[in-house]
Amino acid sequence: MKKIIAYCLYLLPAMVSAQKMDFETYEPVSTLVVPAHPLTRAKFPFIDVHNHQFSMPTQDIKGLLKEMDQLNMRVMVNLSGRSYRSVEGQFGIQDPAYLVDAIKHVREATPNRIIQFTNVSFIGVGRPGWTENALKELEADVKAGANGLKVYKNLGFSFRDNAGKLLRIDDPRLDPIWEKCGQLKIPVLIHTADPKPFWDAMDDKNERWLELATHPDRKRSKTDPAPWEELIQEQHNIIRKHPNTVFIAAHFGWYPNDLAKLGSLLDSFPNMNVEFGAVIAELGRQPRMAKRFFEKYQDRILFGKDSWVPSEYATYFRVLETEDEYFPYHKKYHAFWRMYGMGLNDEILKKIYYKNALRIIPNIDKSLFPG
After folding, report:
1. Left if phi > 0, otherwise alpha if psi is -120 to 50, otherwise beta: which for 233?
2. Region of residue 338 (left: phi > 0; alpha: psi -120 to 50; beta: else)
3. CA atoms of 118 and 328, how far apart (whole Å)
4. What is the spatial distance between Cα 185 and Cα 367, in angstroms, rounded to a whole number?
5. What share of the chain is helix, strand, coil (3-state, %, to 5)?
6. What's the rounded Cα separation, in Å, for the pair 250 and 153?
7. CA dihedral 303, 366, 136, 245 (to 10 degrees)
8. Residue 166, SS3?
9. Cα Rg of the chain, angstroms
């Protein structure tokens, strides 16, 4: 009996330590021995169509270019062209000088490595003259050098019209904006909603529980602001209604976990394209299904990352280029599962990395890329 008690006392410190360990801390080293090909640089020069530099007018451009070169990123698309600030209690837009100053500041350092998208403030839709002013600003921004329009998820989440009503993404009063983009031949990169599990019950069945626990502001419901299915349908409505405008659905349209559904949407909407910013973890856990999807829709997919953390690009390169197995993702709260590489062939990689973006986004210097 004394030996048993002594042994239990011997194990007690380890047991207490284990009890204090939480899920985020637990990171066992895999004993699996398989070929590994970690990458820090893309095989081909690439265009990141989904990036955010929120202080572009004062950005250290030379330092940014150096980091881009290390990744083999030939062109960065900054989607935060006008940047945001709070206006009338809503997420508003900086004055037009912000975009002009950003374009001027970048061009002084590099004529062709960084391009800007502009943004539209949807505050006050319904006021007299709102549409005319918005179209005038959009035309002026494109003339100044903007290459596209980025629509944030605040459209559908928080923008309200002149009567204080939540503005629907497919509100017909916004149709002139989408039509004007088609006339100006600029794409609309649109972010609608968030991952569907953010709307689901936060329980032991929700695989995004850890993300919601660590980022509680991301939790949504049918009334905050609206059902997920409704928001996504509103996005599809404007894509269908405006066939002469090119749309890029951010984050694989939040169907990276249902590629059959996403494929059906691409089949239905010839003017719809997708980029995989912040959803590479979904693709990396279904390499065979994802590879078939990339093979079938190789002309409709663009490279996007979303946040500017250079070290995280390694996961993207490895999923796209290698056939590695069971390697970690870079944010455990975002994806606690392991990744597998698709091993895409060179021709598809070139399309994903730069050829599709060159075709869809105007005024990118083609001389920066191989044929």
Report:
1. alpha
2. beta
3. 35
4. 21
5. 45, 10, 45
6. 10
7. -50
8. strand
9. 23
Q: Is-contact 252 193, C-beta < 8 A?
A: no
**Geometric angle at alpha carbon 182, from 168 and 296, rounded to 5°:** 90
CA-based nearest residue to 130, from 173, 82, 184, 175? 173
Q: Return d(Cα 281, Cα 265) in angstroms, integer.
A: 21
What totals of helices (H) and strands (E) does the chain contain, helices first?
Answer: 14, 10
Euclidean distance between CA atoms 80 and 107, whole angstroms: 16
**pLDDT value of position 97:** 79
Domain spans in the chain, listed from the N-terminal domain onward = 43-307+344-365
Of the candidates 236, 151, 224, 237, which has an alpha carbon nearest to the alpha carbon of residue 186? 151
Question: Nearest CA to 144 among 81, 83, 188, 204?
Answer: 81
pLDDT of residue 82: 82
For tokens 């021709």, the residue is: 347
**Residues near 309 by Cβ (< 8 Å), separated by ≥ 6?**
330
Decide: pTM greater than 0.85.
Answer: yes
Give φ, ψ of 81 to 5 degrees.
Answer: -65, -45
Rounded to whole angstroms, what are the CA distances from 229 to 10, 201, 233, 235, 367?
Answer: 55, 15, 6, 10, 42
How far apart, in whole angstroms, are the C-alpha atoms of residue 225 and residue 216? Answer: 15
**Domain 43-307+344-365 is found in CATH 3.20.20.140:** yes
Around Cβ 36, how many Cβ atoms within 10 Å? 12
**Residue-wise pLDDT tens digits, 245-303:** 999 999 999 999 999 999 999 999 999 999 999 999 999 999 999 999 999 999 999 99
Mention every residue, 6+ apart, whose C-beta is less than 8 A from residue 2: none
End-to-end CA distance of the chain: 79
Look at the block and give the residue holding tokens 């870079």: 330
